[in-house]
Specification:
- By secondary structure, this protein is of the alpha/beta class.
- It has an 8-stranded parallel barrel with strand order 1-2-3-4-5-6-7-8, surrounded by 5 helices.
- Helix 1 packs across helix 2 and helix 11 runs antiparallel to helix 13.
- The longest helix has 16 residues.
- It is globular, with a radius of gyration of 18 Å.
Length: about 300
């Protein structure tokens, strides 16, 4: 049997969904919708849920809404899935406060993005993550997404941070596959692909799994890629990864944020989502129709 080369079981599971935050038609937090969506995702194969991340519209939700969402989803899924709470902000002190609140609300870990806009140098980036990791008792997943933050977590910085006892994982959206492999080879950090197109490739070289926005739509189909690889059928895993490509591209690379496209299709499917909050705007009919067609083709395909 072929298995990924991680030194131990992934700390939050393999198949994680970056869950959208459902809102009511008036734009209020929809906790009942969040419970229903979380329950569906777990029933369809998600082993973990990442709440209050970019996909969860964290820049436009209040601290109180973030805590309420964690509590509601914890209530809905119990111990059937891990919950990782996004707590990253551009302010170290605020981020540490959110990490403490996530711990109180019942999260199993926190996702901490690189401080954005101020573009701190690497020594300041490192100190930011250490301060947050020291502030609470939860394991930390670093989030490396320089396309949004303007600042990398450079591989050498990652290697130093790997020595912190509570820094255990990385959500990798760096598009630096060589850098990711360098860190994988020299640490026990659990690397999660934050870009769906890299999920199988990163898993095959020792990654832990993925944190996926598209998993809001097709959790079972994305999970099947990892299951096939773990079963030793790497050719089938590749075919399943390729089958998802059309939907991944339309959802994530069509010029709109993934939150917008995914919520548009979830609403079209009658699943909990609701509107996006400004400054985001809803997906148009043409975009949603294209997503719906690609979704229906994917879910209708026979197992390969």
């Amino acid at each position: 049997m072929t298995t990924p080369a991680t030194a131990s079981a992934p700390p939050f599971g393999r198949a994680l969904c970056a869950m959208v935050t459902p809102f009511t038609a008036s734009g209020a937090l929809d906790l009942d919708g969040a419970r229903r969506l979380a329950g569906r995702l777990v029933a369809e194969g998600c082993e973990g849920l990442v709440l209050n991340g970019t996909t969860g519209e964290s820049p436009t939700t209040t601290d109180a809404e973030k805590s309420a969402l964690v509590r509601a989803v914890r209530e809905a899924v119990g111990d059937r899935a891990s919950i990782v709470a996004g707590v990253g902000t551009a302010d170290t002190r605020h981020t540490a406060e959110l990490a403490l609140e996530a711990e109180k609300a019942g999260a199993d870990g926190v996702l901490v993005v690189t401080p954005y806009y101020s573009r701190p140098p690497q020594d300041a980036v490192e100190e930011h993550f250490r301060t947050v990791a020291d502030a609470c008792g939860l394991p930390v997943m670093l989030y490396d997404i320089p396309g949004r933050t303007g600042t990398r977590i450079e591989p050498e910085t990652m290697l130093r941070l790997a020595g912190h006892p509570r820094i255990v994982a990385v959500k990798d959206c760096s598009y630096d596959f060589l850098g990711a492999q360098k860190v994988l080879a020299r640490t026990e950090l659990a690397y999660y692909a934050g870009c769906e197109e890299h999920a199988l490739a990163l898993y095959a070289v020792g990654g832990a799994g993925y944190v996926s926005t598209v998993a809001n739509l097709v959790p079972r189909q994305l999970r099947s890629v990892l299951d096939a690889f773990d079963a030793g059928d790497t050719a089938r895993a590749a075919r399943l990864q390729q089958r998802a490509t059309e939907l991944v591209e339309l959802a994530m690379s069509a010029g709109l944020p993934g939150t917008v496209t995914v919520k548009g299709l979830l609403n079209d499917l009658g699943l909990p989502a609701g509107p996006v909050r400004a400054p985001l705007r809803p997906a148009g009919r043409e975009t949603t129709d294209g997503l719906r067609a690609a979704y229906e083709r994917l879910v209708a395909e026979r197992p390969c």
